[in-house]
UniProtKB/TrEMBL annotation:
InterPro entries: Beta-prop_WDR11_1st, Beta-prop_WDR11_2nd, Quinoprotein_ADH-like_sf, TPR_WDR11, WD40/YVTN_repeat-like_dom_sf, WD40_repeat_dom_sf, WDR11. Residues 665-686, 1023-1060 are annotated as: Disordered. Residues 1046-1060 have a biased composition (Polar residues). This is WD repeat-containing protein 11. Residues 918-1326 form the WDR11 TPR domain. Residues 461-874 form the WDR11 second beta-propeller domain. Pfam families: Beta-prop_WDR11_1st, Beta-prop_WDR11_2nd, TPR_WDR11.
């Protein structure tokens, strides 16, 4: 008969049982657990995207679905492979629940693609946390129960590695943003488990254990206090499989990797913040909570300047600033995450707080102005990505040679958070901070931060569980104008009555809550009905012991929001109210009581009771308007005499009576309401009728005309139709048909005009509710009904078929959810649109179920998009929600450069572009560029036309992003590529493009040797004179400033920055320090290494001492290293080794024999697995290249880069960086981090080969254009400063002038250009064959 699909859903509020499960993806999609469902919200527009209900367990489908306790988005980028089917793997979401199930959702298809269940001796263990790790492929680390950690292969749905911590309670899993292979698991009692995942087999996982010393108050208070106090074991802890969130709800143990420093971990417990160094395996600092500050809940984000943002269990946000040269923090700001105004009493509880990366910070400086506008870009590190700064500064200059201006105050940082409360609301907060850099401040003093938090947006969902609903119905007394005789169109609103005493108005077209009315003072609303299209009437009752019930009736105006009670009695009543029934016009109200007479009220401005019925009603329903009939045209007057009826199918059941009634009516009456009026009634005042059934099985139809109640006088069915033994439990009445259901599952219909009747048995048990489906002109069926049974299942039957049961759409359960109430959504504009069934689930959710007929539309007609797809109040601008080919088309246009005017839509019509032109040649929207054209020239125009639907809908870029793109689009290929990657949530790639111009600029001045950038050594600014000595060459190199005596680190940094500023490519700066920002920027690398030394000064122990000595040697501080080595006590087993190293380091300048002896000793030490000692001896004799090789052989890549940055230069430094890049690409599988290392080492051809092997044609082409742009800038800079002959440098390949070894690999460059053109042609073909998606 029909098919069904999910049309929309609004879940109830979350609770503490969800354990604060929430996560925001890099695409700006926030997912959080609300009961047994997952709610997905677009953070940019704060709109509900989709709700994913978890199904019940297969073993017992009649039980409700368990609570969602953990979830995380997969950190995967959008696929650019056009040769395969469109992939939505970037929208996969891992979800764990209380019953130990782990589901991998495809949010685009709204389906579960993988189930993972772990059976243990203790049964199924509830899920505590989930985390994606490794990345090639992505594996899933899951905490099962209190202490079991498993790493799953989701593609095969099997665990590859397990670990049981015994008595420990695991709390959370975190992945290192530097390396997705590095994972840490934190326990409540201080256990820290560090994992290194190198593959997909059990032997590929290596683990280390650390014990973190937590305060005595925290350790004993949360895990050992007597039962009944906060943090004590809850009732759920009696189960052996209860995770930490159920066993100890008040205990907290969270972690976050530093996005700035590798191997640095921030641990948060209830009363303290601990900084742990995984490299040393020791705690660097502990910050206890001040008195009066609530317990911590989680660490949310770590900004530059080491600013921590933490959430507290009392619903507050705190900001902590690191003390200088110490890993200790002081609280600088705190604020509540719930608005103080308009908050109900008691105030709602904050369930979770999430950091949301929304923007990239683009800060504009113009000459002659002290301050300009700031565009924020907040970058979030992803697992496996490089360490990322929170912002980037883009300096826009009118003159390239003009000095860059510094802002009057420090850079403005803005971090976005979303707090989720248990009343169904989401609050978006923007926390801004300024670093006040006054001129009088000393160099060694840290700037004072100034923080401010503002509420920016809000999303309101359901505040509590829903109990019932009401939909407005067309009125038979208000016929619309025009040719249709259908009833007046109802408003597209659904009224929901909640358990918390509120009425919620839901716009079904937008799937959003539009208004909320607190009407019944926290008492459960028992029923609600519409009074016309603008008023609601609802009731509740409360029991007074020994006295009866207090019934409360309230009329609410949805336009003004005012509520007014009526029928207020002084004393309690004997019986509570049972139900309300309102007439379609809203003029009459019938109040039904339990074991008491029903009352009829006229709902005027002041409601008045007309009379009471001393009849024992079981069910009663008002008559809905009859199904609309097409109006006969003058030429078809003959057809009125033909008994064609209402249906195109053979007459059956309801259609037989309907066609007979239509044929018997005159033509004039056939176009009017089929309300049967008694003789002598006249036409002065129309009436409304209602049908009812009594306890004894009797049926009746009454009519209300004005203030009079009279018998409708229907034509009765056969006597065998009803019996005194039948108890009717449900009824639906649409003129002229009455459909009834009884407690035995029988469905009866009766035509009140003709007396015809029939019945059939559903074999489903008692019937609870029956609803007629709305009918529009041209419908093939007018007898479709929805039936709700007593077992909370439902079915849809066609009364216009020979066998309604055989053609029924039956839902034994809707995804494991019991159905409490249902009704049809009344608005349906077109016959091809599917029907919408409004459903209230037992989980407190509201759902719109799409019911579509299997009948195909006539040839040449296509179904229109459903209502909720057309009426979203704000467009969703997330590129992750676009179809793959269209998203790639937008990506390419942003990379190539498009004018900002193309994005703008007129606010008046919402469809016309401001330039006033439509169609034609759209290439004038592309930015003009002097760069050579590679690929297909006409592809851009095809892509512009393919995205016209999204552009008109405003779904490409929001206003803020358009302004940001306009500010950076003219600053070069790399800048546009960085913006595009950040907009698509690929922050590792964005960081590479930000680093690339400065890395190429440093490369052009000889950071990796004279021939790494220039084709001719005579052109290189590093080697201009043929007779220059090696010592002079060393002194004039960019890295020599680090080793000059008497030059401070600040001077060295400024000198190297000035070298980069000589090139126009330095228009993009990274204002905040990051260790891996640019590996060839040796001053920054050395400065970061010296900062780490200050953190480890107080660490003691043999292992810590050896590593501290290595840090001193790496930065060239031999004096401190000797001092530390001489402090080794004589009884220590390392005394002689330390003494030997101290002597060697003290006599760094030695004869050749001494050098040879030291090398032999160093080799012997390496053979004894003492690589650090051998490395120190090599450094003592100046063999830094060999020392770096030893460090890399032992896996100390960061130490090797630090040593190389401090002591190596030119090609020696390039070899170290290139080997590191090969390791990162082959073992860590981090493409973009390897790319910047290849560029820093001068291996540009290797970088291009890596992009080709990764099948990224657009990035490969952009890389060539960026290198061409860098070469052009460098050549023009040399020609402007010195009259040099650069003719040798003009070697073009495919129109490109490329630096370094790229000019020697013409075949590879040509292959990339051809590959890019082929990709453009394929993309242009694909986007024209894929239809745009409206939502």
């Amino acid at each position: 008969m029909a098919g069904s699909g999910a049309g929309g859903m609004i879940a109830g509020p979350g609770s503490k049982e969800n354990g604060g499960s929430a996560h925001c993806s890099a695409h700006g999609l926030l997912a959080y657990g609300a009961g047994s469902s997952i709610v997905v919200v677009d953070v940019r527009s704060m709109q509900l995207v989709v709700v994913l209900p978890m199904p019940s367990a297969r073993s017992n489908p009649m039980l409700p679905a368990p609570y969602v306790t953990a979830l995380q988005w997969i950190p995967e980028c959008m696929s650019r492979d056009l040769t395969q089917e469109v992939s939505t793997s970037h929208l996969r979401l891992a979800v764990g629940d209380r019953q130990g199930r782990v589901a991998i959702w495809d949010t685009a298809a709204k389906d579960i693609v993988v189930w993972m269940n772990l059976e243990t001796d203790r049964g199924r263990l509830g899920i505590q946390d989930v985390c994606w790790v490794y990345g090639h492929p992505w594996l899933l680390a899951v905490i099962h129960g209190p202490s079991l950690l498993a790493i799953w292969d989701p593609y095969q749905a099997r665990p590859i590695w397990k670990y049981d911590a015994g008595a420990e309670y695991f709390s959370c899993i975190r992945c290192d943003p530097f390396d997705a292979r590095q994972v840490c698991v934190v326990g409540l009692r201080g256990l820290l488990l560090s994992l290194l995942v190198n593959g997909i087999s059990e032997n590929d996982v290596a683990s280390k254990h650390y014990n973190v010393v937590v305060s005595e108050e925290r350790s004993s208070g949360n895990l050992g206090m007597p039962s009944g106090k906060e943090g004590a074991p809850s009732s759920a802890s009696t189960s052996a499989g209860a995770p930490a969130l159920a066993a100890y709800p008040g205990a907290v143990a969270k972690a976050m990797f530093s996005p700035r420093t590798r191997s640095l971990l921030y641990l948060v417990y209830s009363r303290e913040i601990i900084v742990f160094d995984l490299n040393f395996g020791m705690t660097l600092g502990t910050t206890p909570m001040p008195r009066g500050v609530g317990k911590l809940q989680d660490v949310l984000a770590v900004a530059d300047h080491d600013i921590l943002y933490c959430a507290h269990q009392d619903g507050k946000l705190s900001v902590w600033v690191k003390k200088e040269d110490k890993q200790l923090f002081s609280m600088s700001f705190t604020e509540t995450l719930i608005p103080l105004m308009g908050t109900p009493v008691p105030a709602p509880t904050v369930l979770a707080v999430i950091h949301c990366p929304l923007q990239v910070q683009v800060q504009k400086f113009e000459p002659g102005r002290e301050s300009t506008r700031n565009l924020q870009l907040d970058l979030l590190p992803m697992p496996g990505s490089a360490p990322l700064p929170t912002g980037l500064t883009e300096n826009i200059k009118n003159d390239v040679n003009s000095p860059q201006l510094a802002p009057a105050e420090g850079n403005l940082l803005e971090v976005t958070f979303v707090s989720i409360t248990d009343d169904g609301r989401l609050w978006q907060w923007a926390v801004g901070s300024k670093l006040k850099l006054g001129p009088e401040s000393a160099k060694d003093s840290s700037p004072e931060p100034d923080f401010k938090m503002d509420l920016t947006m809000q999303l309101q969902l359901l505040p509590s569980a829903i109990k019932t609903l009401a939909v407005p119905v067309p009125s038979q007394l208000a016929i619309t104008n025009g040719r249709s005789n259908a009833g007046a169109v109802a408003v597209p609103m659904v009224a929901l009555a909640t358990q918390g005493g509120t009425l919620e108005l839901v716009d079904a077209a937008a799937n959003a809550v539009t208004s909320s009315f607190a009407v019944h003072n926290n008492s459960m609303v028992r029923g609600v009905r519409w009074l016309g299209n603008s008023r609601l009437v609802s009731f509740s009752y409360s029991e007074v012991k020994g006295k009866g019930f207090i019934n409360r009736l309230v009329v609410t105006c949805v336009r003004s929001g005012q509520s007014k009670p009526f029928r207020e009695l002084q004393k309690p009543e004997r019986s509570p109210m049972r139900a309300l029934r309102t007439s379609p016009s809203g003029r009459y109200l019938i109040i039904m009581f339990r074991e008491a007479p029903a009352e009829v009220w006229t709902m005027t401005k002041v409601p008045q009771m007309l009379r009471s019925f001393a009849l024992s009603f079981t069910v009663m329903e008002w008559a809905l308007p009859p199904a609309p009939r097409p109006v006969a045209t003058p030429r078809s007057s003959v057809s009125a005499r033909k008994p064609t009826g209402f249906y195109s199918t053979p007459p059956t059941i309801a259609s037989t009576a309907a066609s007979a009634t239509a044929a018997a009516l005159p033509p004039k009456l056939a176009n009017q309401d089929s309300v049967q009026k008694p003789q002598g009634s006249g036409e002065a005042e129309p009436g409304e009728s209602f049908a009812f059934a009594l306890v004894n099985g009797s049926l009746g139809v009454f009519e209300l005309v004005g203030r009079r109640v009279r018998d409708f006088r229907p034509k009765w069915p056969a006597t065998s139709f009803v019996s005194s033994e039948i108890l009717f439990t449900a009824m639906a009445y649409r003129m002229p048909h009455v459909v009834m259901g009884d407690r035995l599952g029988n469905i009866r219909w009766w035509d009140v005009s003709s007396g015809h009747s029939s019945l059939f048995n559903t074999h489903r048990g008692g019937v609870r509710r029956i609803k007629f489906a709305p009918v529009t002109l041209g419908d093939l069926s007018r007898g479709r009904i929805a039936v709700l049974f007593n077992d909370h299942t439902f079915a849809v039957y066609e009364l216009d078929t020979q066998d309604p049961v055989a053609n029924a759409l039956v839902h034994p359960q809707l995804g494991g959810i019991y159905v409490l109430e249902l009704d049809w959504f009344p608005l349906r504009a077109d016959k091809n649109e599917p029907l919408l069934l409004c459903i209230v689930g037992a989980d407190g959710s509201f759902r719109l179920l799409e019911i579509s007929s299997t009948a195909k539309p006539p040839q040449g007609e296509s179904g229109r998009p459903t209502l909720w797809q057309r009426c979203r109040p704000m467009p969703l601008c997330s590129p992750a929600l676009l179809p793959g080919p269209h998203a790639m088309a937008l990506r390419m246009l942003l990379q190539l450069g498009v004018k900002s005017s193309w994005f703008y839509v007129s606010p008046s019509t919402g469809a016309e572009i401001l330039l006033g032109t439509r169609g034609g040649d759209l290439r004038h929207f592309l930015l003009e560029s002097s760069l050579p054209e590679i690929g297909e020239k006409v592809a851009a125009e095809v892509l512009l036309k393919s995205l016209e639907t999204y552009r008109r809908a405003g779904r490409l870029l929001d206003r803020e992003r358009v302004a940001a793109y306009e500010a950076v689009s003219s600053q070069g290929v790399a800048t546009r590529a960085a913006f595009t990657a950040a907009h698509f949530g690929e922050y590792a790639e964005a960081l590479f493009w930000l680093q690339l111009p400065k890395a190429l600029a440093l490369l052009s001045v000889g950071s990796a040797g004279p021939n790494a950038f220039w084709n001719s050594a005579d052109t290189s600014p590093v080697k201009r004179q043929v007779q220059i000595t090696p010592r002079e060459e060393k002194e004039h190199s960019p890295t020599a400033i680090l080793s000059k005596p008497g030059k401070s680190q600040n001077d060295a940094t400024s000198d190297q920055t000035q070298l980069a500023r000589e090139s126009p490519l330095s228009t993009i700066n990274l204002p905040f320090r990051s260790v891996d920002a640019i590996p060839c920027e040796q001053a920054a690398v050395t400065a970061a290494a010296k900062e780490r030394i200050t953190w480890h000064e107080k660490l003691t122990g043999t292992t810590a001492t050896q590593k501290r000595v290595h840090e001193y040697v790496s930065v060239g501080d031999f004096e401190s290293a000797v001092t530390l080595l001489l402090s080794t006590p004589p009884g220590d087993e390392n005394f002689y080794v330390d003494a030997l190293r101290a002597v060697s380091l003290a006599t760094a300048v030695s004869p050749a024999l001494h050098e040879l002896a030291v090398k032999v000793v160093a080799a012997n030490m390496v053979g004894r697995d003492d690589s650090l000692a051998g490395t120190h001896l090599l450094c003592a004799v100046g063999r830094y290249q060999e020392a770096c090789s030893q460090l890399q052989d032992s896996g100390r890549w960061i130490d090797a880069s630090t040593l190389a940055a401090a002591h190596l230069r030119g090609t020696d430094l390039a070899r170290v960086l290139e080997r590191w890049a090969e390791h990162v690409l082959a073992n860590e599988h981090n493409l973009w981090r390897a790319m910047i290392l290849f560029v820093a080492s001068g291996a540009l051809s290797e970088a291009l080969a890596a992009l080709r092997n990764a099948q990224l044609p657009d990035s490969s082409a952009l890389f060539l254009l960026a290198c061409h742009e860098a070469k052009q800038h460098a050549m023009s800079d040399l020609m402007s400063k010195e009259e040099l002959d650069v003719s040798r440098e003009k070697v073009e390949i495919a129109g490109l002038e490329l630096p370094g070894d790229l000019s020697k690999h013409a075949d590879g460059v040509v292959a990339v250009c051809e590959y890019f053109g082929q990709y453009q042609r394929m993309l242009a073909h694909t986007v024209t064959t894929v239809s745009p998606v409206t939502d």
